[in-house]
């Protein structure tokens, strides 16, 4: 059993880390790692699809690429929507911007994903 002094110290450390973004970044990594590529059902992190993740003031920007420029657009859209939904589920995330590359419909998919609200 944790004493009240230790418990309040741990809670204060947690609040401090959350303010500094440490906890938020770990939760963001976990959320991204839980997204599976729709066609192969393998995490996008295992497939090395994620190129860059930036977090600033509660706004998460993710740049990722497709496995093939001609993956079915509906599956790419489903993966992108899942990514955005999971990231918006992380406490402290205010908005998510997705930048897909390497697909023949990347521009249209990006427009649709980034204008979608949940």
Elements, N to C (H/E): HHEEEEHEH
Number of domains: 1
Oligomer: single chain
CATH H level, superfamily name: Fe-S cluster assembly (FSCA)
Number of helices: 4
| Whole-angstrom Rg | 17 Å
The biggest beta sheet is recorded as: 3 strands, mixed
Q: What is the tally of beta strands?
A: 5
The residue ranges in which pLDDT falls below 50 over 5 or more consecutive positions are none
Structural class: alpha+beta
CATH topology: GMP Synthetase, Chain A, domain 3
CATH class value = Alpha Beta
Strands of the widest sheet, in order across it, are: 3-4-5
Any overview of this molecule?
- By secondary structure, the protein is of the alpha+beta class.
- It has one domain: GMP Synthetase, Chain A, domain 3, CATH 3.30.300.
- It is 47% helix and 21% strand.
- The protein has 4 helices and 5 strands.
- Strand 1 and strand 2 form a beta hairpin.
């Amino acid at each position: 059993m944790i004493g009240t002094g230790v418990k309040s110290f741990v809670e204060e450390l947690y609040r401090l880390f959350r303010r500094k973004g440490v906890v938020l970044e770990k939760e963001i990594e976990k959320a991204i790692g839980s997204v599976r590529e729709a066609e192969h059902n393998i995490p996008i992190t295992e497939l090395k699809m994620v190129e860059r993740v930036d977090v600033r003031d509660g706004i998460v920007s993710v740049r990722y690429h497709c496995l093939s420029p001609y993956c079915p657009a509906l599956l790419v859209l489903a993966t992108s929507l899942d990514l955005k939904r999971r990231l918006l589920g992380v406490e402290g995330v205010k908005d998510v911007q997705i930048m897909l590359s390497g697909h023949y419909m990347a521009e249209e998919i990006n427009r649709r994903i980034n204008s979608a609200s949940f």
